[in-house]
């Protein structure tokens, strides 16, 4: 167990599994930011490009929030890595993004369930809702090609 002080609460006890999950979430967001930048460049229409860039901006926000949580829990800056390479083909990239977003919803809800701290619970619950919305957009793009 790690004890940490979040700026909004007194000391909280944090399970190392939770810290590892948050680090994995940071890597996932970092990978998505990179991938969605590439997808936006290859978008079929200007409307798709704009929507993918909006999704990418959500991922940037998640990355920043999760990184701040990680810093508060560990006292260390995260060292993000691209863990999942983005397919080069646009259609394959959309399918990849859809599947990844769907899996991320479940992962973030699991983190929310594990977390003791109300702020962490809420941030991951909200991120899960965003990821579900992203998945719907990617599915729409896949079916409209």
UniProtKB/TrEMBL annotation:
Residues 93-142 form the Rubrerythrin diiron-binding domain. Pfam families: Rubrerythrin (PF02915). It comes from the Bacteria. This is Ferritin-like domain-containing protein. It comes from Bacillus songklensis. The lineage of its organism: Bacteria, Bacillati, Bacillota, Bacilli, Bacillales.
């Amino acid at each position: 167990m790690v004890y940490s002080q979040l700026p909004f609460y007194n000391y909280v006890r944090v399970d190392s599994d939770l810290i590892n999950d948050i680090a994995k979430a940071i890597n996932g967001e970092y990978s998505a930011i990179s991938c969605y930048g590439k997808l936006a460049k290859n978008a079929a229409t200007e409307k798709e490009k704009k929507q993918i860039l909006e999704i990418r901006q959500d991922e940037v926000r998640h990355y920043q929030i999760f990184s701040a949580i990680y810093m508060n829990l560990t006292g260390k800056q995260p060292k993000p890595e691209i863990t999942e390479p983005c397919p080069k083909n646009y259609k394959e990239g959309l399918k990849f993004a859809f599947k990844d977003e769907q899996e991320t919803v479940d992962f973030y809800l699991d983190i929310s369930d594990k977390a003791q701290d109300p702020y962490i619970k809420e941030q991951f619950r909200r991120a899960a809702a965003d990821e579900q919305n992203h998945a719907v957009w990617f599915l729409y793009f896949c079916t409209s090609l």
